[in-house]
Structure formats: structure tokens, C-alpha cells
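Onboarding guide, step 5: your first structure request.
Type a short instruction followed by the sequence, for example:

Predict the 3D structure of this protein.
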Amino acid sequence: MKFRLIFTLFLIATVGAFAQTNKEFVIEGKFADEKAPGTVFLFYKDPVSGRPVNDSILLDNGRFTFSGTIEYPVYAKIVYTFNGNILYATAADQRQFYIDHGKITITGRQLFNAEIKGSATQDLLTEYFDIIRPVQKKMIEVRTDRDDIYKPYSPEHRSLLDRRLEELSKEYNRLSMDFVGAHPDNILAVDMLRSENATHPENEQVEVLYNRLDENLKNSVPGKRLKREIQNKKRLTRGRVAPEFTATTLRGESKSLSMYKGKWVLLVFWSPTCDICRREAQELKQIYAEYKEKGFEIIGFTIEESKPEWEKAESDLELPYITLSDLKAWSSPIVEQYKISAVPENYLINPDGLIYAIDIYSYDLMETLNSVLKK
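The system replies with C-alpha cells like these:
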């Protein structure tokens, strides 16, 4: 079981108000402490070219200003650091928000709860967050309860908590898709559909809601990008052939997916820096021990660019199954091939090399393996 916000953590190029003719934006910020030293960074992707844009400015009496030109409103990240080194930025010193055309003001003591005015798209995003917040809170509570190692829950009780999480996840999805349907002419509709399509390609609602979008939105650059992504994801649905790939082990041995034909394979995309991935790996170790002699294999594709980090994670976790990587992190053609936008994500592949299930975890995975390995 994994928990993902509809908005993935990477910045997504977006579309907004199409009546705009002035493409310029100005961001004016002011911290409550006028004597605060430091640097403010702004990151976003050009909504047309996809090119990363990075900007920074020194605080002047607690104030900062950014300006630029964008074809469409875009989701951005702003970060404050007292010494100019972004590695020292805390969660309270960061904020993601929409840059709209025109003037935007950001005021507050810290960025994470600063007041943002002037961005109609950001206002709508806040409205969406208010809608889903109660469900998010329940999901966090159930997950925290389930993952508490000091509570002597039986496997059956933990499975009940897994199912409760699944119910809440469905409610989260319903609220999100209802929100998309209520705003077919807005930027958030494109963003939310792109994210849902990336994480749940089997959700037929994505294409239904795409077809209901405003024509101007569908004909925009990001709208056309969404259409391509929907078409690409159709190739990765259940019953389709799992794309072939070749990558290497830590020892430099070349391995291809096709080498495992004839077995049930769980292809897991994970990252050493992902806490949820590491917790899932502990569960997978137990599942692997139970089913490896029955024709089941796990392949962990490591999304990382540092071999030492990959090696350390595999050693710390004592993984008994094979892990592969091309050390290209999120630029990997294999990550692109499988349209991975967040981790963990997995594909259960049958002995014929066909996708049997997508994003299957814990109890559901064991129940499926019990069924198919008896055949």
C-alpha cells in the first residue's frame, strides 16, 4: 500500500487562464523579520519547453522580488535558506504554489504557511486541499497505526488496516476526480488528470474527464501533452506486454526482463531515499522468502544516480532479491518507458511477460500469488 498526493513532488508544467494576453509575472515577498539574512530560490519548468528555470535573490530588509514571462501559469517551488546553501533548507522554509500572470505577493514568518495573494490558480488549489484534507488526515492516522512496530497487531488486523487505507484512497480519488469534473476549463484539471494517469493508468475516468475538458485547454501545449500521456499509458495496462529492458546489477552484470520469462515477476521501481520504499522492501523480503521456490521473482529497479547510495541501501536492507539500475535516476529511459512519476510503483508480470497487476501490495499481493501459483 502506498499513499500519494494527487500532485506528485516533481514540478509539472501546467496550463491556466487562456484569456490572458500579458504573459509577465511579478512575485513580491516579505518576511516578518526584516533583519533576516539569506537567499530565496525559485524553481519551475517552462510550461512549453519543459526547460528547468532556476532563479535566486538575496533578501533586502526581509524582501525579495522575482519577475519573468511564462506562456501559461506554472506550478513552482520557492525555498529560503539563511546561508545560500539549499541543502540547509528545512520543510518550513519551502513552499510549492502556482505562478500566475500578473502580481503575486507572499508574506509571512516562514514560507510553508505564508499568505499568497494574486494567483487565482493557487486559490483554487487551496480550495481543493480544503476538500481532501479530512480524508488525508484519516489516511495518515490509519497508516501511522498500521506501521507502529510497537503495537502487537496480528497479520489479519494489519490486513484490515490495509483495506481501510484502500477505502480511504478510493474516497480521495473520488473527491479529486469530482473536482476535475467541476473545473473543466482550469489548469488544475490538466495537472490532476496527468498525475492520476501516471499513478493509476487503469482508471478509465481519466480519459472520460479529458474528453470533457474545455477545447482551449485540450488544444494547449500541456493539454496535448496529457493526451499523449493517456495514449502512452494505455500500452501499460493489464494484459499488455511488459516493455523489455536491460540494466545492470551492482556487480556490473547485465540483466534483461526477458531472462525471467516463465516466472511470475514483481517489477518494483524504488529509490534508496524513499522511506516508503524502504518499508515496503521489508515486507517484500518476507513475501520473497515465502514464494521464491514456487516460481516467483522480484526485480527492484533502483532510481538513483549514485552507485554508493544504491549499494549502501541494498546492504542496509539486506535485500535477498535482485536489484538493477542504469544510474540515470529520473532521466532513465526505463523510468520513462514505464511512465514512472513517483515511487514505489510496481508491476506484477505473468510467466508469458504480460502485465497481470499494477501497484499491488501486502495482503493483495500475497492473495494473488497464492491463487496464481496454485495453477
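Each response can be followed by summary notes, for example: The longest helix spans residues 155-182.
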